[in-house]
């Protein structure tokens, strides 16, 4: 009997030892399967904060008090996240093979961006990730983003692509929290939402030209009057209380327009009016962006804004193939291309970077305590290669009559546009670390 009891205990001990060994082996195997590039990141401690009181939706909050910290991956200091290439995403949650969300998990996707709903047959366009030249771009961390912006506010100013950007962000953040709509208007182009548990406010202000713009009394003619030295009151009178303003524009400058400055007509684009100089589209884009940035960086003398201006460069205008947008042009590609900036995209991008540098230098020279800070979000080079990321004909049912039947302007959600917010998070983390401003 004693021999049997001893043998039984020995067997139990051996079984327990084997179980521990299996657990150790499985753990090691799991670690070894993680994408190797993740090991290049040193964990960074990001101080989180909690506001002492909830401020009004449009008011900048006072500096929050410290609370516990969180660890988040960030890119190295010497890495330019805006220059790189698209590479296939491999299987594994950390490497981006699966989209962050779907049309079933995010309710912020507009119909014309809902490529899954309308039956886009190729979903391979979702299985690519952006890899900068000198580092790896971490996946978007919704919880980390929320901690960085806790107690703050962010406005997206521009055309429907600015709203597309904001909606991508809202879908990404839906893993953490769904916001409360606190809009003061029923116009969806001027929507404001609030993430109450993080005291974070996000708003959209539609302003395709950034400056005052009035359409002709004959909408069919498509002519617009632009007042290039007047910032659009739709946003200029509303952003003073925000911590961040993400400003963008470009696509609308392709339309027929009349240019006004200092109260007089100075030229046009494709107006075909005798005696009126036909100026380049870059003329109006430059003047409008300069006016907007001057208003944003002038402090009390302008829009009253003293937060951080993030200038996002243009989303490509060149992705229609086989014709213009209203003449059969389409974007039917199914994977990234090797395309580089050229033509109008390059011209517009050059103007935007030059005007950003000009505004940056002017703000540095002024060096006033209430002046806004500027950051450049240079997304164009990455997006030029993603003609496969648009809805094309999959933003509506085939029998529907819509203005933009083949949409090669906006971006599918989920889709390549989500990389804008991966970049945005890294920009905020980088400048938080560098001390250039307090996040």
Could you explain how this protein is built, in words?
The protein has 439 residues and is α/β, with parallel strands linked by helices. The chain has one domain (37-434). Helices cover 27% and strands 19% of the residues. The protein has eight helices and 15 strands. A seven-stranded mixed beta sheet has the order 6-7-8-5-11-14-15, with helices on both faces. Strands 9-10-12-13 form a four-stranded mixed beta sheet. Strands 1-2 form a two-stranded antiparallel sheet. Helix 5 packs parallel to helix 6. The radius of gyration is 25 Å and the shape is globular. It starts with a helix and ends in a 5-residue tail after the last helix. Residues 78-136 form the Trichome birefringence-like N-terminal domain. Its main location: Golgi.
Uncertain segments of ≥5 residues (pLDDT<50)? 1-58, 62-68, 435-439
Strand count, sense and closure of the main sheet? 7 strands, mixed
Query: What shape does the CA trace take?
Result: globular
Number of helices: 8
Distance between the termini: 72 Å
How many discrete structural domains?
Answer: 1
Strand/helix succession: HEEEEHEHEEEEEHEEEHEHEHH
Strand order of the largest sheet: 6-7-8-5-11-14-15
Report the mean per-residue pLDDT as an integer.
82
What is the rounded Rg? 25 Å
The helix-and-strand class reads alpha/beta
Question: Using DSSP, what is the number of strands?
Answer: 15
Could you estimate the helical fraction of the residues in percent?
25-40%
Portion of residues in beta strands equals 15-25%
Membrane topology: Single-pass type II membrane protein
GO molecular function, one term: xylan O-acetyltransferase activity
Family: Belongs to the PC-esterase family. TBL subfamily.
Keywords: Disulfide bond, Glycoprotein, Golgi apparatus, Membrane, Signal-anchor, Transferase, Transmembrane, Transmembrane helix
């Amino acid at each position: 009997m004693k021999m049997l009891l001893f043998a039984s205990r020995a067997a139990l001990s051996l079984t327990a030892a084997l179980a521990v060994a299996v657990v150790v082996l499985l753990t090691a195997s799991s670690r070894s399967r993680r994408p190797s590039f993740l090991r290049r990141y040193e964990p960074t401690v990001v101080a989180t904060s909690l506001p002492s009181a909830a401020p009004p939706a449009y008011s900048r909050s006072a500096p929050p008090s410290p609370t516990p910290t969180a660890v988040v991956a960030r890119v190295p200091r010497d890495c330019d996240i805006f220059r790189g290439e698209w590479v296939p995403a491999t299987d594994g949650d950390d490497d981006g093979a699966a989209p962050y969300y779907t049309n079933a998990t995010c309710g912020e996707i507009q119909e014309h961006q809902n490529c899954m709903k309308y039956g886009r047959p190729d979903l391979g366009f979702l299985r690519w990730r952006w890899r900068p030249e000198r580092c790896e771009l971490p996946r978007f961390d919704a919880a980390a983003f929320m901690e960085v912006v806790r107690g703050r506010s962010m406005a997206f100013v521009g055309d429907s692509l600015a709203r597309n950007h904001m909606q991508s962000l809202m879908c990404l953040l839906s893993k953490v929290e769904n916001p409360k709509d606190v809009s003061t208007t029923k116009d969806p182009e001027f929507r404001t939402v609030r993430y109450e548990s993080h005291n974070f406010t996000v708003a959209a202000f539609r302003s395709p030209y950034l400056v005052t713009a009035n359409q002709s009394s004959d909408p069919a003619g498509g002519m617009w009057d632009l007042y290039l030295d007047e910032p659009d009151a739709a946003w200029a009178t509303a952003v003073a209380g925000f911590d961040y303003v993400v400003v963008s524009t470009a696509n609308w400058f392709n339309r027929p327009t009349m240019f006004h400055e200092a109260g007089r007509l100075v030229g046009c684009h494709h107006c075909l009016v005798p005696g009126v100089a036909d100026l380049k589209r870059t003329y109006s884009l430059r003047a409008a962006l300069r006016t907007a940035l001057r208003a944003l960086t002038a402090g009390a003398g302008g829009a009253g804004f003293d937060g951080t201006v993030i200038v996002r460069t243009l989303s490509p205008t060149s992705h229609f193939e086989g014709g213009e947008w209203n003449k059969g042009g389409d974007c039917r590609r199914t994977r990234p291309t090797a395309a580089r900036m050229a033509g109008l995209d390059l011209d517009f991008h050059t103007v935007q970077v030059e005007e950003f540098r000009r505004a940056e230098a002017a703000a540095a020279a002024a060096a006033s305590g209430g002046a806004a800070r500027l950051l450049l979000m240079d997304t164009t080079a990455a997006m030029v290669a993603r003609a496969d990321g648009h809805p094309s004909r999959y933003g509506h049912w085939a029998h529907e009559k819509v203005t933009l039947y083949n949409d090669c302007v906006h971006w599918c959600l989920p889709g390549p546009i989500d990389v804008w917010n991966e970049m945005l998070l890294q920009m905020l983390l980088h400048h938080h670390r560098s001390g250039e401003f307090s996040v």
